[in-house]
Design a protein that fits this description.
- This protein is mostly helical.
- The protein has one domain.
- The protein is 85% helix and 0% strand.
- The longest helix has 28 residues.
């Protein structure tokens, strides 16, 4: 369902504000997860 909506947005030539907000949130979450992973590895000593 979501894929279809995204395809329609791309065909229209613009992403909706919700799409952009979702993408930005996903990027932030990914960065936070990567940082947490690095901290865990560092404190783990591996």
């Amino acid at each position: 369902m979501q894929k279809m909506n995204r395809k329609i947005n791309v065909q229209r030539g613009s992403l909706s504000a919700a799409d952009l907000a979702f993408w930005a949130a996903a990027q932030r979450a990914k960065q936070k997860y990567a940082k947490t992973l690095q901290m865990l590895k560092a404190s783990d000593g591996s």
